[in-house]
Design brief:
Helices cover 54% and strands 7% of the residues. By secondary structure, the protein is an alpha+beta fold. The structure holds glutathione.
Length: 236
């Protein structure tokens, strides 16, 4: 059994990693960090992950970064958890890797542009355009997911996988910043089903408690404050 420590911040994509660890029934120590306090830019955290990002999973003292790599490692290390479909050969394994890559490198960057558009333009007044383009891009992606879920209820049909948790985290983030959910009834249903999984309920509780803890310490993330700091050149 590996010694596992997961660095996370509430409501981030580390939620997907946490669901994977819970589904695999792997004991781990969750370590909450604060973006507002700048923990992710500190020397001690950058020694673990020079990019200053969560999730960062420390395995027997060695950090593993990037959700895609962490989730693929967990899926391979704990096949009984069924995080990804059982692959019959390298080609099938590559196909589920492609789905993970699409979540991490295709969908996630669109979420960031929608939530924090001012990081992606040199003039504050261009932020609305960046956001609108990101919203159009994620809408196109969700229309494809919505169509695929007709054969559902999960991404891989009858069987749940960690891709469902990843898609749902993307959905949570963009509906949480204004995307109209009403055009996507299957994605709404997908969220209801996912929330019924015990692993997901436990992880959502951990994230809600972490959000409360940070808020009590005056460390809640405020996107309006970040936008105004970026506009004033106070955030790199
Ligand atoms: N490519 C990374 C992205 C991770 C990432 O961007 N995490 C966000 C939270 S969802 C983060 O740590 N942001 C802090 C920052 O960008 O300063 C992965 O897939 O693990």
């Amino acid at each position: 059994m590996n010694d596992l420590t997961l660095y996370y911040a509430p409501d981030t994509c580390a939620r997907v990693t946490m669901i994977a660890l819970d589904e695999a029934a792997l004991p781990y120590e969750p370590k909450l960090i604060s973006f507002v306090r700048g923990d992710h830019r500190s020397d001690w955290f950058r020694a673990l992950n020079p990019r200053g990002r969560v999730p960062t999973l420390v395995v027997d003292g060695a950090p593993l970064t990037e959700n895609l790599a962490i989730l693929q490692w967990l899926a391979d290390a704990c096949p009984q958890a069924g995080l990804l479909p059982e692959a019959n050969g390298a080609f099938e394994a590559a196909r589920s890797l492609a789905d993970l890559a699409w979540c991490a490198a295709g969908l996630h960057p669109i979420v960031t542009r929608m939530r924090l558009p001012h990081f992606f333009c040199d003039r504050p007044e261009a932020a609305a355009n960046v956001r609108a383009l990101a919203e159009a891009a994620i809408t196109a992606e969700f229309l494809l997911i919505e169509a695929r879920l007709a054969a559902g209820p999960w991404w891989y049909g009858e069987r749940w996988s960690i891709i469902d948790a990843y898609i749902n985290w993307i959905w949570f983030r963009v509906t949480g910043c204004g995307l109209d959910a009403s055009a996507f009834p299957r994605l709404q249903d997908h969220e209801r089903r996912l929330s019924g999984r015990p692993s997901v309920r436990r992880v959502l509780d951990i994230h809600a408690a972490a959000s409360r803890q940070l808020a009590e310490q005056g460390l809640a993330v405020n996107f309006d404050t970040i936008a105004s700091q970026v506009s004033q050149g106070k955030v790199a």
